[in-house]
Amino acid sequence: MRWTMEEARAALRRDKEFRPLLKAVKPFEIKSHRPYFWVLCCSILSQQVSGASARAVINKVRALHPDLRFPTPEAILATSEKKLLGAGVSRQKRRYLYALSEAFTDGGLGQVRWARLSDEEIIGRLTAIVGIGRWTAEMFLMFSARRRDVFPVDDLGIRKGMERFFRKSDAGTMVERAEVWRPYRTVASVYIWRYLTAGGI
Prior knowledge:
This protein is mainly α.
């Protein structure tokens, strides 16, 4: 479903408690990112490391495939563990990358029409792959598929922001409070993150 940030901001403005975030955070856009397979590879490679370390490894893995704009599932499967190790990919993450690649080839994810799937259907398909949890699937929905109504209640930043700004400290009350932001909980979540980063709370 197509939607605009202007529509989202107008909807969020109806929540009086949310208005200070709208005023404090500079306008931004949420864009979709593709190819989906490579986006998920980057998510795996970014797990439990600093941003700088993740970027370094991601660039090295891309460099293993100079003839491709982005590595494909077939290309990753054809890359030896030795080469991935040389690029800085740990044994566990090599396993995850191969599992993801197989899901996109033999598992058929490469043929999926993502736009026809609901958020929960996508989460279900992705979390069935070793190495991909719900949080990673939610980030995929928000920043790759550009789904407008995702609320990652288990994210530490969201929990911190909900407690400090909206005085909600447990998952149940956070989800209940976020209901008023439907169908733009993705945008509300990004505002919370950006407000925290800016030191506004």
